[in-house]
User: Fold this.
Amino acid sequence: MNRRDFLKIAGVGMVSTIFEPVLPYEIKPSKKRLALLIDITKPFDIKACLDACNKAHNIPEIEDPKHKIKWIWPERFSDVFSEQIDMPKEITIPVLCNHCENPPCVRVCPTKATFKRKDGIVMMDYHRCIGCRFCMAACPYGARSFNWIDPKPFIKGSNPKFPTRTKGVVEKCNFCAERLDKRESPACVEPSNGSLIFGYLSEMKDLISNRYCLRRKPDLGTSPSVYYLI
Amino acid sequence: MKMYDKSKVIPGLFIFASIVAFPFLYNQVNPSSEPVLAKAEGKCVQEKDFMKKEHMKILNQWREGVVREGKREDIYINGIRYEKSLQKTCLKCHKRESFCDKCHSYAEVKPYCWNCHSGETK
Assistant:
């Protein structure tokens, strides 16, 4: 190869790097997708559901709103669905990670600490989390919390069977993956008196199609797995 | 051949050599005692010699399986059922203070398992 050829090839190579398409991170569709239906027409003890989750996952109770850790928490219906529907009566509903079919948090995670399981659970591997908080910026639902301080002193009712988290990692609801794999239903579903229904989406199609139901911010295209039956 | 500053160089070399050799000689005279590990009840997942070298690899395999691949089902070794868990399996027989920490502090390794898996919340 002479000098002229070398410069030609090098030039073409350099130009081609500019036009290299930026491939989106591939997120495979779930094979059998898990979903949670929340029937907000039936009154139920929201606090009992939240407490069950907090206890099962060693979630600290930190008063400072800047340091608060939330997996599932109460929110006013009008704040959550204001752009979709007007509710004549003000009610409180539980909100949590939506375990989106197309999760933006998985797309942005630089270490694959957040990933999507085959059953649709958007799962976190805290061992890999480097605390960059890209996922928190990407999540349109504010479902993620960052451990600014060591959470251990703030844990009230502890569950020795579940690990705690450490300072510097992001955390969120895991759809009780550890309980599902042991054939138990999620912690929040148990005390809900039938208002929270958990299962495979394909098996709950009738319930969803027979009722009027909402999902949070559907126009973003994330396709949440948490449905609110109203 | 003439050596300059012999009176300074030779003692200097001697001092340097003795400083370098001191830790080795010190350890020869009174060797630090090897860690004594607490005896544990129950049957371990593998033999002692294997666990000595490879326990971290087993823990990593369990971790990858449980967290990333969703393989949480219990494992059977020689007919005994084990749950893939540091907190729920290993620490059931071994106490952290009298077992894990003994070797880790002897070898000056600081595994970060305990940040989350100590089983304590305080």
Summary: Chain B touches chain A through 17 residues (CB under 8 Å). Chain B has a mean pLDDT of 88.
